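Notes to self after the Tuesday call (sharing in case useful).
The group wants a holo model before anyone commits to mutagenesis around the pocket. I volunteered. Ligand is magnesium ion. Logging inputs and output together so the record is complete.
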Amino acid sequence: MVKSTETKDNPINFNFDNSFASSLEGFFVSCDAEPAIAPKLLHLNYALAEELGLDPLALDSEAGLEIFSGNAVPQGSNTLAQAYAGHQFGGFSPQLGDGRALLLGEVVDTQKRRRDIQLKGSGRTPYSRGGDGKAALGPVLREYLIAEAMHALGIPTTRALAAVSTGANVYRETPLPGAILTRVAASHIRVGTFQYGAARGEVDKVRALADYAILRHYPEIADAENPYLEFFVAVTDAQAALVASWMNIGFIHGVMNTDNMTISGETIDYGPCAFMNIYSPGTVFSSIDQHGRYAYANQPEILVWNLARLAETLIPIVDPDKNRAIELLTETIDCIKPLYESHWLAGMQSKIGLSTEDPQDQKLITDLLSVMAEGQVDFTLVFRHLAKVLLGVSDPVRNLFKDPAAFDLWLQRWQKRLEQEGVSKETSAEAMDRFNPIYIPRNHKVEEALSAAVEQGDMKPFTKMLNVLSHPFEDIQEEKVYAEPPPLSNIPYRTFCGT
Ligand code: AMP
Ligand code: MG
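Result:
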């Protein structure tokens, strides 16, 4: 690791307030970015910069570029790589850590929320193992686009503040242009961070980490009788809500390892993720997920599995009596599935325009999903076009089905159920349109935008798509192509880990 430029040379001040570095000795190593030879700013998120209390115009400059490329350390920054462990595809690695990421520091944003600012792809760290610590341009832009799309869809997520190209190649199967993403997160503490402390048998460290995570993410439980048990309950609720929102929108994370599951409940690490087009519960996009462990329909089960791994790390601090601790944590684990299902059901009810409860709703929804699976229809468009039926236009949704007979029967049941709502059809249709996006990051359009950037250095398709995805619920006639499913193909879509 090469020492970066002097901090005093850079006029930009993030007003860093670095609590992780000052509270959690043993969970990080200090290190520096490697310099980028000829960096170029590719994209800067003005709105996010403002939210962070930063001046976007000041960042959109040579001085900003120096920081986003790792060539200068901003004032007050304490650059470090965080340590974590993790179960990857079910197998435990006691030592992972930020192998290609560097925390610059924390800022308290304009809404008084503490946010991490991190460079991803800025070079080797002591946790790089065999890797080069770098990132390629395609995956960096992919993460930028999908994270920002998720945010606009209302799903908790890490954000993208800036993307720069480094001017140097990274070597994967072929040489590819290198890039760095500046990522913003509520924190980068993961289930794997707890596993790191627990795997070393360092109970005091796990307790310090839990105390820190409680103060940072769940301060309301700090004075609870058993804050560590309440902490586990809070994380399960945040994660159950998150995975339910993925399922509601057709999102497949692709690599739900415990090191990619945050304590804050934000979606993190957009490597092989993708949105489903045709509804098929077994969908897997990731080339490395050969057994479909992280298939769409398995995500709720993996949620429970990952949270059980978090629970294991908390046993020594939840109760001095080990058996009692296990009993308490198990009770909470047993609640995750029903908790997830209630979040999921609430989301699905909104998708079909229901704001009241009926015991038959669950069946109504699962029957729709069966008809959709049978009909091999586009997940996003079915829900988006469903609202139109209420305005007397049923062709767009019916035409998605080759044979709409079964769907027609379902439509009748649904319309009858809607009568109980006691609101006008227009009101239900409007509510549905605020919940069912017209624009998701369609894989073929994502690929188009990334290849233009990587192969031709043309950022326009990326910028255009980012713009479309910033208003996912607002149908704009000129942007119709972004709403269309991919042309039919016999070649299944495959994603690769963003390394
Ligand atoms: P991910 O699959 O992106 O969540 O990464 C899993 C682990 O591999 C993390 O500890 C990363 O820091 C590390 N890693 C991934 N890519 C690289 C790379 N190119 N160089 C060094 N470490 C990496
Ligand atoms: Mg990761």
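Two things stood out.
The two ends are 19 Å apart (CA to CA).
Confidence is low (pLDDT under 50) at residues 1-6.
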